[in-house]
Each structure stands twice: as structure tokens, then as C-alpha cells.
Amino acid sequence: MSAPVALIVGAGDYIGAAIARRFARGGFTVCLGRRNGDKLLPLVEDIQSEGGLAHGYAMDARDEDSVVDLFARVESEVGPIEVVIFNVGGNVRFPIRDTTARVFRKVWEMACFAGFLTGREAARHMAPRGRGSIFFTGASASMRGNPGFAAFAAGKAGLRALAQSMAKELGPQNIHVAHLVIDAGVDTAFVRERMQQAGRDPDTLPPDTLMSPDSVAEAYWMLHQQTRDAWSFELDLRPFGERW
């Protein structure tokens, strides 16, 4: 039998890459999509060097034709998709008076509209087969707005509502839809740069203050292993010492 297929839309260098490695270790063929497709080559080669199967695709998650084409290519060239993970970000910080219409629209396109396109195409392919998992990466902003994050919170809250609607519609069709709230900083270059700009040295933090991308990836893997008599819709992740 051929390996099951996992498609990661928004396969960035940290969470997306860690998810790809985890599913590859679990026996999946992983298909990776991101706007700058050439940046996927090191990850694909790394997975292949460990004996895994991986394919990289350049795509724009905000563009309908690009998303439709990606799903069609994977289904025809690789195999039926069993797991789809939407992991596009869009985290920007602007005071409300400095948030332009262009910024707000762009963040919404990345955080919410792209999730709709990905989720819809996943459902179109999975529903006739009567199985599959569709997981969406959320953030603290999915649950609450904060100063400077109006655009990001609006997009991520919309993504959460989309995921919830899909879960209620598709669950009875044996398709597991879940939303993950990443409610803390993940150990990435972006987060470390933000901390340095705020006058905090990330290297002085106590152990396990920032989440490891590998730990986050394990949560996605665990979700896909759940039996359907006890599916989770929402899973929130944070370090043990995080205040919330």
C-alpha cells in the first residue's frame, strides 16, 4: 500500500517544518506548500535524507486558482490526501490608527480567506471518500483581541469560526476538523527578534518558556490519532509557566 498523504499549506521554517518532519516519521508522504517554493528544498532534502517522502510546491494560499491547482496536483501525482494542515500566519502589529485598509485586507486574506480556500478544497476531496483530517493553526488572537493586533485578531477569529462551522458540518461525514490555539511564543527567529526589540534577551529565559516547534508538531500528530468517538475540536497549547 502507498503511504498516506499529508498536505501542509504554510510550510514555514518552524512549526510547518516540524509538522512535516513528524508526519514523515509517522509514515506519511508529506506535501509542502508555501509562496516561496524554493525555500522548501532544504526541508524536502532533510526529510528525504532521513528516509521520508516529501514534495515541495510553490503556491499562494490567498489565490483560489493556486489552491485548487495544488490540491489537484497532489491528488493526481501523489495520492489521496488524508490530512490537511493550514498553517499560514499573518501576525503583524499596528496601532489601529496606523492600520491601513491594505494591511487589514492582506492580513485577513492570509489568516482567514486562505484558510477558507484550503478548508473548502480539502472538504471537496475528502467528503466523497468519507474520511480525513483538517487542522487549522490559530493563535492567542483567535480568542481575544489586544492593542495593536486588530487586523490579526479579526483574521484569526474568523479562521476559528470557519473551523468550527466546518467541524459541525463535516464531523458527521467522518472528517475530523480541529483548531489549535498556539497561546504563547514559539521558539522561532521571529519571536526572538520581537523579544529583543522589546528589550528582553531570549537566551536568559528559563527552560521551556518558549514552545519548541517539535512539541507543537506532536500535538498535531496526536490529534490525527484520536478515535472518532472522542475527537477534539479545539486544543490550546502553552508552556507550563505561561500566564493566561
Automatic annotation (TrEMBL):
InterPro entries: NAD(P)-bd_dom_sf, SDR_fam. SUPFAM superfamilies: NAD(P)-binding Rossmann-fold domains. PANTHER family: OXIDOREDUCTASE, SHORT CHAIN DEHYDROGENASE/REDUCTASE FAMILY (AFU_ORTHOLOGUE AFUA_5G14000), OXIDOREDUCTASE, SHORT CHAIN DEHYDROGENASE_REDUCTASE FAMILY (AFU_ORTHOLOGUE AFUA_5G14000). This is SDR family NAD(P)-dependent oxidoreductase.
